[in-house]
């Protein structure tokens, strides 16, 4: 399987991940009324804060643009994995302490979403990396 075919077959997974993050991010902007106190801004079960919405929307847009160039899918997978693993770790600490006035306002649903996004991105990155290695070895032999 060549690199282009392998990364093209990952496009549906990248599309699903990007659309979920983009949808939650964009809709979160509509649930940021200024009269709500910290901890009350929610989109269904997810927290809606400006910072989280920017991160989710940016990651979703980045995923949609990565689909245009198959070689960008691998980089997208690694970037999202590292970023969302960090968000998950910070979110677990933030949700466990429940400090009043927390600007990011992570909840457990956010931690699950970010953890699943991180695991999905790791899968995308590993599959695209693994499929690229035989192609690179074949190029070296030629």
UniProtKB/TrEMBL annotation:
It comes from the Bacteria. It holds the Pfam family DUF4383. Keywords: Membrane, Transmembrane, Transmembrane helix. The chain crosses the membrane at residues 12-32, 44-68, 75-100, 112-132. This is DUF4383 domain-containing protein. It comes from Amycolatopsis coloradensis.
